[in-house]
Write a structure and sequence with these properties.
About 5% of the residues lie in helices and about 35% in strands. It has 1 helix and 23 strands. The strands form 6 sheets. It has a 7-stranded antiparallel beta sheet with strand order 3-4-12-8-7-6-10, with no helix packed on it. Strands 17, 18, 21, 22 and 23 form a 5-stranded antiparallel beta sheet that branches. The chain binds zinc ion (ZN).
Length: about 300
């Protein structure tokens, strides 16, 4: 798993740095180290028109125990058409659960083995309940989960990390961006996004917002955990804030040539009344991990870089 993530993130970061525009596609998804789906894929828009993010991926929150948010909420009036973002198959659809899963044939070989799912949730109706679909095909209509939520479309990518054909919760937005209207390298999509490692400096951007508007992520709210590859204990360093960017310079912390692993935690400290559920990690993995990576058996994702 660690090898996988190291390679994956190296690829993701490489692609991120190289992308300037991708024409009409909406999302650029990097699939690294999958059996058949390696490379970059521009998934289509799940909606037909302008997308507004009403809740970010990885956004710390307290909604039905899903903290942080395991997907992206797009503003969509009740009954808005929802489209397949790629060729694939509807693997399950449940009107009573207001949700459906599509399995995408990322490499286009017609074989259902690319381990990439998308979940659409809070749907008002399902148009295609099973079988093959093509990119851009109408598959469902958005809803409110029978009035439980304001109408919107929740979608999130998942990946089956095993071989059981069941999607594990693994959703991240950093590798997929909307370029057409400039979602700014994921900053508008992901609570913590756009990680880089340049000049020995680990950097992430942290953005939060809710219905009241944008919140400030304060100085001290972002901690970067880092360690030498092959060791287990994380060292926590409070990141330096510069606007929305938070950085830790590793120069002097490790000898040149040291391969390090790092991950970032951001608090949403300006949110009041949300008890013990106010942080997110980047890169994220599965459900919310523990607050202290040194005090948990949960596996963490991390970036891998070499100190120069
Ligand atoms: Zn959602």
């Amino acid at each position: 798993m660690k090898k996988f993530w190291s390679s994956f993130m190296a690829l993701a970061l490489t692609v991120v740095a190289g992308i300037t525009s991708v024409g009409a596609a909406d999302y650029s998804v990097v699939f690294g180290n999958t059996s058949t789906g390696a490379g970059t894929t521009q998934l289509g828009n799940p909606l037909a028109s302008v997308l507004i993010v009403t809740s970010k991926f990885n956004q710390p929150r307290n909604v039905n125990g899903t903290n942080p948010h395991n997907g992206t909420d797009l503003g969509a009036a009740y009954g808005t058409n929802v489209y397949a973002q790629w060729n694939g198959w509807v693997t399950s659809a449940s009107p009573s659960a207001y949700e459906m899963f599509l399995y995408y044939d990322i490499n286009g070989d017609g074989i259902k083995n690319d381990n990439v799912f998308v979940k659409y949730d809070h749907l008002s109706s399902i148009v295609v309940s099973s079988g093959a679909v093509t990119k851009g095909q109408l598959v469902a209509r958005s809803g409110s989960e029978n009035g439980v939520y304001p109408a919107h479309l929740h979608f999130g990518l998942r990946r089956d990390t095993g071989t059981d054909g069941v999607s594990d919760v693994w959703i991240r937005n950093e590798p997929y961006y909307r370029h057409v209207t400039g979602w700014d390298n994921g900053k508008d999509l992901d609570f913590i996004s756009y990680s880089t490692f340049n000049s020995n400096t680990a950097s992430v951007y942290a953005y939060a917002h809710d219905s009241a508007g944008e919140e400030s992520i304060n100085s001290g709210d972002v901690v970067i955990f880092h360690r030498k590859q092959g060791t287990s204990a994380w060292t926590a360093t409070t990141a330096t804030k510069n606007g929305h960017q938070f950085t830790v310079n590793m120069t002097g912390r490790y000898p040149a040539g040291t391969i390090i692993e790092w991950t970032a935690r951001a608090n949403r400290s300006s949110v009041k009344g949300v008890i013990s559920m106010y942080w997110g990690f980047h890169p994220p993995k599965y459900y919310q991990p523990d607050y202290d990576p040194n005090a948990t058996a949960y596996k963490y994702d991390f970036f891998t870089n070499t100190v120069q």
